Amino acid sequence: MVLGLSSKKEKIDGVAESAGVSLAASAWKRLRRSPVFLTGAVIIGLFIVVSVLSPWLAPHNPSEPMLIDQVVKARNEIPPAQPGHPLGGDLQGRDFLSRLLVGSQQTLIVGVGATLIGLAGGLFLGTLAGALGGWVDSVVMRLVDVMLSLPSLLLAFSIAAMFAKPSQFTVILAVAIVQIPVFARLLRGSMLAQRHSDHVLAATALGVKKGAIVFRHMLPNSLSPVIVQSTLVLATAIIEAAALSFLGLGNPDDRIPEWGQMLGDVQNVFDTHPHLAAYPAICIIIVALGFTLMGETLREALDPKNRR
Amino acid sequence: MLRYTIRRLVQLVGVVLVLSLLLFAWMRLLPGGPVSALLGDRSTPEKAAELTKQLGLDQPIFVQYIKFLGRAATGDFGVSTGVQPGDSALDIFLQRFPATIELSFFAIVIAIAIGVPLGYLAAKRRGGWFDNFSVIGSLIGVAVPVFFLAYVLKDAASVGLGLPSQGRQGDINATRVTGFFTLDGVLTGEWDATFDALEHLILPSIALATIPFAVIFRITRAAVLDVLDEDFVRTAEAKGLTAQLIRRRHVLRNAMLPVVTTIGLQTGALLSGAVLTEKVFSIPGVGQALAIGFERRDYPVLLLLIIMATIVYVVVNLLVDLSYALIDPRIRTR
User: Fold this and answer.
1) Between 3.40.50.720, 1.10.3720.10, 3.40.630.10, 3.40.50.10490, what CATH number should domain B97-294 receive?
2) If you placed Cys at B293, which of B11, B70, B97, B298 could pair as Cys (CB 3.0 to 4.6 Å)?
3) Residue A27 pLDDT > 70, yes or no?
4) What predicted TM-score, i.e. pTM, was given to this entire model?
5) Residue from A142, A153, A259 to probe the interface with B (highest B Cβ count within 10 Å)
């Protein structure tokens, strides 16, 4: 019954538009030809490939202080570039290139982890508020208001500072919680807009259960702003994780490196050895730019206003 | 209008109370709280127990909170344990906020002064090289971690341009009137003090301005693009108004609402960015106190400063909402 209804709905939409292309299809058609989107996609594609393959790409073990002799001999000098170590070593005499390569993996984990947790929390709260309305809506939205009345990065700092033992997980959690109210608001907005729309009314009239209406009709129709927001959050999560490390709120265990941590941890030697900060910073900027390019072009492509 | 303002202010009180309760509970329930932070390596169980009792940390959490509220009403927010040990949290805030307000003010002025005209120009020349170039530039702007940019500016510009690489320290011999260093020089006629303060503000405020600038630029561009498509712009052109008049009276005025909203929301980015920027440039402001507070888990200071930041953020956004009526007469009549 439900399936029959949705296929019929598509047919009606198709007739109304004469061309009969769904929003996703027409968006993809435009994205495929957008050089900006393709640039972002290539950057992110490369980033994912490198991070998955990094254990095999890295020439050395990123946590082994193999150049420690040079650090000790020169009294805390940072090992320069040399045969076998094209970027030299870091403060503890570990191969810098290997750390950069392997760092991509943890960076991807931080970005994706924070986005998924934020998304799940926002999805839950937003769906709850938007679908049920009434007092549930009021309670959830007041909570969201309190969270949004703190500047977001400051909220992330505060949450991270509340864990006595910082770790990779607390970093991910701090960045993720900040995103929950943003996602919740987005979802609630589009849920509310649909509550009295014709397709929901039709489904209700046909006796479709409330749960099915929410999950099969309202939620899928609310997803495009959420997808756009997720892409943008992937970028900010990586940058915010770096800021946490810079304030000493990041993961103190640096055996398995992460770019934000690498950048935040070398603040004391920035004046003398800027390359230790510059490489991870450039990696972060490029990846964040890649996600942002994809997110912004997705937003434009999925905006019904821009359909031609 | 008045009723609306009052309702929003009441909401603010609610938000602050809930937030303070959450922060208070969260910070007190932590293991390794202020006691171990204060004692450090010298901690012994006896000393720790004594200090816990002295600070009142052995009482039930809601008793502590009620006591805290009572003291807060008289301006006593507790004593700093890490930022400036022994000083009262309120004094720390009062000493430090002028530096942060000054920094944020210059940053937002830079962001608006460059972002709005650039956004307008980019929209006017949509698709041209200037548009593409500045859009890409703004996307890179939001992708750069603030503190990294601050370090680059600090190192590059202090060497290349001879600008001071540290923020104002407050030890120059100038008369203090308000605590705002740029303002004091003007008030007392000590112009060199004002110039010195301004010189110290250039690099930090540029670093802090990048993200608000990039966002304001993009919103202005999008808003102007929307308005340029409107019928009334075509009508204004058709009836022969000068380009200047159309720009000022029709395009910019109608594009201003989303821009002003964004400027309000960007105060949040300023407040959080100040934590990072002030740390890099060693500016003795609220942001630096927060940075040290997070590092040393100085709860009384953190609690007060976070609540103050929230109040500033909410009030600025309230002012922004109220300013809609000034910009758009249609809202005033409602």
Assistant:
1) 1.10.3720.10
2) B298
3) yes
4) 0.84
5) A153
